[in-house]
Specification:
This is Sigma-54-dependent transcriptional regulator. Residues 154-383 form the Sigma-54 factor interaction domain. InterPro entries: AAA+_ATPase (IPR003593), AAA_lid_NorR (IPR058031), CheY-like_superfamily (IPR011006), Homeodomain-like_sf (IPR009057), HTH_Fis (IPR002197), P-loop_NTPase (IPR027417), Sig_transdc_resp-reg_receiver (IPR001789), Sigma_54_int (IPR002078). Residues 5-124 form the Response regulatory domain. The protein starts with a strand and ends with a helix. Helices cover 49% and strands 15% of the residues. Helix 13 (331-346) packs across helix 15 (370-384) and helix 18 crosses helix 19 (433-440). The relative contact order is 0.07. It has helices spanning 13-23, 39-45, 65-77, 92-100, 113-150, 159-171, 188-197, 219-224, 241-244, 260-272, 298-303, 309-315, 331-346, 356-364, 370-384, 392-395, 399-404, 411-428, 433-440, 444-454, and strands at residues 2-9, 27-33, 50-54, 82-87, 105-108, 178-181, 206-210, 225-226, 238-239, 249-253, 274-276, 283-285, 289-294, 318-321, 353-354, 389-390. The protein contains 20 helices and 16 strands. By secondary structure, it is an alpha/beta fold. Strand 1 (2-9), helix 1 (13-23) and strand 2 form a beta-alpha-beta unit. Residues 148-152 and 403-413 have low confidence and may be disordered. The protein has a five-stranded parallel sheet with strand order 2-1-3-4-5, sandwiched between helices.
């Protein structure tokens, strides 16, 4: 028995009785009515999957105009309704018109039960398929909105970050290719999301492809797709990531990891704006916005002939170089407070605050893992902390890690930078400490501690 509810609309009592007697053995529920004027009420009260709709209701009518009218009315309520039109007057032109108007199928009366069941069965599968597609579209839309909402503001007020934000706002509305450079954990993916979220394609797909984790043998099939029978396990046609991202943005992360042969294949796709699935000769046009990222020195790689210069020219119309966290001064505390709010909410804990010693520890640590490491440290600290204040012990930054970073810029240099930023913020806001603290991402108490510390 099909898990479907069928609504039958016909002015002939015999047709309704015949259809009900047969279909009640084949489907979950059968609803019948004699007048299409009841459609609105019936659809509002029942979750209908398939509608069998007669095409003529007035005596002597045979042109099907009433059926076409009510078909359009039903689809105006929900374009995904599956409607099968019925008529006792076989007419090819009428059938073609009905299909063009959105009918799923067309059946002649009187019908053979086997034919009716086959039609209903096919319609049920189509309805289920439409539901799945609609659900996936909603999930995708929700994920896209969540992603954009989560990264709609890049956290940071360091001068380098402000310059990047200004560049981003200029380039995002265009379709220019963007190359994002920076150490691991500096937020390259966050910037890619931000570009997409401020572009003309923001309501379309954002496709993230981690080339670093993609097996070389799967590169073509994953990015460009394959045809059924292209290789042993290719049991059906499958579009690649470029096709799936059509109309949206594709973000190729870790592009520096590609071998020269794979770089050549990627370059061909970018130049021609077409992909050819494995096992096919047909070229398919794709319209995507390209964003790439890497932590590798591509210009040096070009000199060493390990990265194609023509590919580098193709991908870096605009280049963004993200600074490491150790060079972002009090952005460290701004980000730390941001992550504390996020994780306090996630783990249902009261908002945490950092102790003075914890703040100093965060500022003096060199963050080899950059923002990603800071995020993980704060998540763990929120989980493990017992009180409302996060202490240096909660951060669990081992002394060995500090010692290993001794060769990096010393604490005095970082302290001088912090002092300068505090003085600049106070001067900018003409001594108004609340505004200065807000700009620095500090509480008033934390700002007072720094004023005392630096003798400002």
């Amino acid at each position: 028995m099909l898990d479907a509810t069928v609504l039958i609309i016909d002015d002939d009592d015999d047709i309704l009785l015949s259809a009900r007697l047969f279909l009640k053995q084949q489907v979950k529920q059968v609803i019948t009515c004699k007048s299409p004027k009841e459609i609105n009420v019936l659809l509002s009260k029942n979750e209908v999957d398939i509608i069998l709709l007669d095409m003529n209701y007035q005596k002597g009518a045979s042109d099907g105009r009433e059926g076409i009218y009510w078909l359009e009315h039903i689809l105006s309520i929900d374009k995904d309704y599956v409607v099968i039109l019925m008529t006792a007057f076989g007419n090819v032109e009428l059938a073609v018109k009905a299909i063009k108007k959105g009918a799923t199928d067309f059946i002649l009366k009187p019908w053979e039960n086997e034919k009716l069941f086959a039609t209903i069965s096919a319609a049920s599968k189509l309805r289920e398929s439409n539901r799945k597609v609609k659900k996936l579209e909603k999930i995708h839309s929700s994920l896209q909105k969540d992603m954009i909402r989560g990264f709609e503001n890049i956290v940071g007020k360091a001068e380098g970050i402000k310059q990047l934000q200004n560049t981003l706002l200029k380039v995002a509305p265009t379709d220019a290719n963007v190359l994002i450079l920076g150490e691991n954990g500096t937020g390259k993916q966050v910037f890619a999301y931000e570009i997409h979220g401020n572009s003309q394609r923001k309501n379309q797909v954002f496709m993230h492809v981690d080339l670093g984790s993609l097996n070389e043998n799967l590169f073509e099939s994953e990015l460009f797709g394959y045809a059924k029978g292209a290789f042993t396990d290719a049991k059906e046609d499958k579009p690649g990531r470029f096709e799936l991202a059509d109309g949206g943005t594709i973000f190729l992360d870790e592009i520096g990891n590609l071998t020269l042969p794979l770089q050549a294949k990627l370059l061909s796709v970018l130049q021609n704006r077409t992909v050819t699935r494995l096992g096919e000769s047909r070229e398919r046009k794709v319209n995507v916005r390209l964003i790439t990222a890497t932590n590798m020195p591509l210009n040096e790689m070009v000199t060493k002939n390990t990265f194609r210069q023509d590919l580098l020219f193709r991908i870096n119309t605009v280049e963004l170089l993200l600074p490491p966290l150790r060079k972002r001064g009090t952005d460290i505390l701004l980000l730390a407070n941001h992550f504390m709010l996020v994780f306090s909410s996630k783990y249902h804990k009261e908002n945490r605050s950092l102790s003075a010693k914890a703040e100093d520890m965060l500022l003096n640590y060199k963050w080899p893992g950059n923002v990603r490491e800071l995020q993980h440290v704060l998540e763990r600290a929120v989980i493990m902390s017992d009180g409302n204040e996060i202490t240096e012990e909660d951060l669990q930054l081992s002394p060995q890690r500090f010692a290993q970073n001794a060769a990096m810029p010393d604490e005095m240099a970082l302290g001088d930078m912090e002092k300068m930023m505090v003085q600049k913020a106070i001067g900018k806001h003409k001594g108004k400490l609340s505004k200065a603290a807000a700009e620095l991402g500090l509480t008033r108490a934390a700002l007072y501690r720094r004023i005392e510390k630096f003798g400002i």
